[in-house]
Amino acid sequence: MDLEFSEEQEAIRDMTRALLEEHSSVEIVRQMEDDPKGYPDALWKQMAESGLVGALVPESYGGGGLTLLDAALIYEEIGRAMAPVPHFVSGVISAGLLLEAGSEAQKDEWLPKIASGDAILTPAWLEPERGYGEEGVQATATADGGEVVLSGTKLHVNYAGAADRLIVLARGDAGVDLFLVDPSSSGVTLTHYLSQSAEPHYKVELDGVRVPADARIGGAGTGWASYGTVLHQGIILLAAQAIGGAARCLEETVDYANTRVQFDKPLGAFQALAHYMADASTRIDGGRVLVHEAAWNAAQGRSIARFAPMAKLFCCTAYQETTRACAQIWGGVAFTIEYDTQMFFRRAKELQLSWWDVPYLEELVAKDVLDG
Amino acid sequence: MDFDLSPEEQKFSDEVEQWLVEHHDPVVMDHHRENFSQLSDTPERRAFMKKLADKGWLGMSWPKEYGGQEIEGVYEFILNEALSKHAAPQIGKGVGIIGKTLIRHGSDKLKQEFLPKILTADVEFAVGYSEPQAGSDAANMQLKAEKVEGGWKLNGQKMWTTSAHFADWYWVGARTDPDKKKHDGLSLFLIPMDHPGLEVQSLPTIGKDTTNQVFFEDVFVPDDYLVGERGRGFHMISEALDLERFTMFTLSPITNRTDLLVDWVKQAKRDGKPLKDDPQTRKTIANIATDTAVAKALSTRFICAAMKGGKPPTIQSSQYKLFTTTLSQRVCDEALDISSAAGTIREGQELAPLLGRFEGAYRATMNETVGGGASEIQKNIIARRHLGLPKNF
Question: Does B278 share its domain with B364?
Fold first, then answer.
């Protein structure tokens, strides 16, 4: 047993942290809040040039060919910096779907562009009054000659305003399929919504959108299985992101608790407050090892059916609870826009609700533990 | 990074596991005794410990000159986890804090008298630190040790001496220098448990087994049985906890209980329907399984820090103990909630689910968040040493 990272991995972490400290400062993150595009070009360009955007894309497609464990380090830094980038939707989920199920032509066309940051892809998945499960996908995919006609409404499509392609989940004759869709196609309407984290969410209305038959990623009816495989990998990274956000929020709170004086003592000298922070640190440090264990198992090619949902379930809850406790220590100022605590507070809740929420993750774990 | 045991460690782990299966004995290994199962408190259990000694599994990490093998402490961790998984007695105080302290600080006489017996499992110890006025404030021991001709005269009282009713020797902290600072006025003594003037009074607990209070009335201890240097008692106690970094509070009893609960839920029925299909039960199981994985992660973190050597893994062990003991109680609590009214039936009766394992465990684990450093003490340690917050008490 050994929990140390290699020198190369430490170097990836250091490089990412330095890059994000410069290009994703709190000022920059604040400027991007509620922005319809949602990310600064300079940051995205820097991340692309340093290999972070294409980290998970194989070297043969111009990426870094890193493992999920390497990527977990990057995602902890993304969480720390609250970096406003479409990395997850494009570099993790879309790239993952293409790698998992895409044709050679699709991979050749899109993976190099995803890796270089020149193209942004984002999945169009969730629907109104529908849940996170397979039955939640009710948009229709109807074969018509050599083409497929897509109709339905998609919600929470992150960064769609900047996307070159959507990966639309729609129901065909054989089940759920994945389709590459140009958002500028006739019949596609995008509407920007503000979200709690201030990351852009889009409603995507598909009204008889015609795509060629070869726009489908993978065999007929295999879309949901591919999506599940990729999302299991992805949520490990979101768990790492949660740990990064929680750790930084706690660090800033500890600094404050050491300097802010009430009743002639620093706040940290009050056990009631110190114990909130001790509890938070225990969850963060435990959650971080769980993330690494999940990512390590993935990198070893072992099953992550149990570890992945456990990691997201635990770490996102730890993040949410940490920000709640930190707000209690900051007191009234935590409630103001001026202070940064609220930025972690909002992001923690959105991350917990997104990409499989608590009930869905609990059921994934329960299924693996009880029904196996 | 590697979450697996090394091949050699795995081989040892497999060997221990196989040996324990082959030597299964329900008299020695009784899960219903919960945390008390670690004690070697009956003739059968002492005989079992002698078999472990014959295997060479006692004192593995000791220096060779004292009969050890000088192998890494992780092997003792692996052994203790396996023993506790099977509810067998564990290598404990003798091999751990007492043996290791004697090796570092004991006189030749004490080393010769005790170390060989520890390795052959021929001596059991009780440890006396806690007192009525020295609970979490462990350095506040008041047991009086007065210098007399040829030795010391001890008067006062100890509390929570778990093994006093069966141990052979008592490892006791007493105040030899009341004029010095609290931490510098304590010394350690070894006293035969059947010494005249020692009175052991049983304190039955809701955890089924008993702990004890021990009264001292003019108990004479010869100079030879003061351990190490006078006035260094508290420092040796603290150091021993650091030396004994691998055989902490074991995780196996908790993973055992989680597994047991899962296996029970998988086959239980309520109102004719499988209990495992109940949405609330599924939610509970998912969270317990997840938190058990986190407890294991914290255990791995603590052991990896211990294996690195150097600074003792105080922070990691505090986080592990805080999280794990809280979870341990929660597992029992949730198991009883899932059992519903049947959870009220006292352990040992067949009307109770799993013969009342969780009813008993619910009571037996009450003390886990208190004994061995209460949760609040762990949080103070984490707050100060890990987070760098100011002293808060």
Answer: yes
CA distance B111 to B161: 24
By residue range, what is the domain housing residue B29? 7-90
User: What beta strand segments (E) does chain A contain?
Assistant: 121-124, 140-144, 147-158, 165-172, 175-181, 188-193, 201-212, 216-217, 261-262, 265-266
Segment A73-85 mean pLDDT: 98
For residue B282, being part of any structural domain is answered with yes
Q: B283 with A362: CB under 8 angstroms?
A: yes
**CATH superfamily assigned to domain A224-371:** Butyryl-CoA Dehydrogenase, subunit A, domain 3 (1.20.140.10)
Q: For A300-316, what is each residue's pLDDT tens digit?
A: 999 999 999 999 999 99
Asked if residue B234 lies in contact with residue B184, where contact means CB atoms within 8 angstroms, the answer is yes
Tell me how crowded residue A365 is: count the other CB atoms within 10 A of its CB: 26
Query: What H or E segment, with its residue span, contains residue B199?
Result: strand B198-204
Question: Which one of B246, B254, B264, B389 makes the best mutation probe of the A interface by having the most chain A beta carbons within 10 Å?
Answer: B389
Q: Are residues B222 and B269 in the same domain?
A: no
- Please tell me the distance in Å from A278's CA to the nearest CA on chain B: 5
**Which numeric CATH code is attached to A7-119?**
1.10.540.10
Q: Which residue among B293, B304, B387 sits closest to A290, beta carbon to beta carbon?
A: B293
Give the gap in angstroms from C-alpha B239 to the nearest C-alpha of chain A: 24
pTM reported for the whole predicted model: 0.96
CB-nearest to B389 from A254, A296, A359 is A254
pLDDT confidence band for B387 (50 / 70 / 90): very high
Which residues are CB-contacts of B117 (< 8 A; sequence separation ≥ 6)?
B123
Mutate to test the interface with A, among B264, B290, B369 (most CBs of A within 10 A): B290
- Residues in B closer than 8 angstroms to A359, CB to CB, are 283
Q: For B295, which residue in chain A has the nearest alpha carbon?
A: A286
CB A202 within 8 A of CB A161: yes
* Residues B209 and B134 reside in one and the same domain: yes
Q: A27-31, B245-249, B379-383: lowest mean pLDDT where?
A: B245-249
* pLDDT tens digits for range B152-191: 999 999 999 999 999 999 999 999 999 999 999 999 999 9
Provide the pLDDT for residue A137: 98
B38 shares a domain with B76: yes
Q: Confirm whether the ipTM is greater than 0.95.
A: yes
Q: In terms of CA atoms, which chain B residue is nearest residue A276? A: B379
Judgement on whether residues B198 and B274 belong to the same structural domain of the protein? no
Confidence of residue B92 (pLDDT cuts 50, 70, 90): confident
Q: Which of the listed CATH numbers 2.60.120.200, 2.40.110.10, 2.40.100.20, 2.40.50.100 matches domain A122-220?
A: 2.40.110.10
- DSSP secondary-structure letter at A303? -
Pick from A236, A253, A273, A275 the residue to mutate for testing the B interface (most B CBs within 10 Å): A275
Chain A residue at shortest CA distance from B261: A370
Shared domain for B315 and B221, answered yes or no, is no
